[in-house]
Design goal:
With 55 residues, the chain is mainly β. It has one domain: Alpha-Beta Plaits (2-Layer Sandwich), CATH 3.30.70.20. The chain has one helix and four strands, in the order E-E-E-H-E. The strands form two sheets. The protein has a two-stranded antiparallel ribbon with strand order 1-4. A hairpin with a 5-residue loop joins strand 2 and strand 3. The N and C termini lie close together (6 Å). The mean pLDDT is 97. InterPro entries: 4Fe4S_Fe-S-bd, 4Fe4S_Fe_S_CS, 7Fe_ferredoxin, PSI_iron-sulfur_center. One of its GO terms (molecular function) is metal ion binding. Ferredoxins are iron-sulfur proteins that transfer electrons in a wide variety of metabolic reactions. This is Ferredoxin.
């Protein structure tokens, strides 16, 4: 199951470079593509607003 980014996202960009499969895209809030996400959790560790969790 892929991780998701919720409305607590502050669009800081910390998560995007951490994703080894480039599943995270920028926007008003960042979005994780569930088709690409391998559920590694690297993004969770760097998110300063705790906006990323398991779906």
């Amino acid at each position: 199951m892929a991780h998701v980014i919720d409305d607590n996202c502050i669009a800081c960009g910390s998560c995007e470079p951490e994703c080894p499969v480039e599943a995270i895209s920028p926007g008003d809030i960042y979005v994780i593509d569930p088709e690409i996400c391998t559920d590694c959790g690297a993004c969770v560790e760097v998110c300063p607003s705790d906006a990323i969790s398991e779906a």
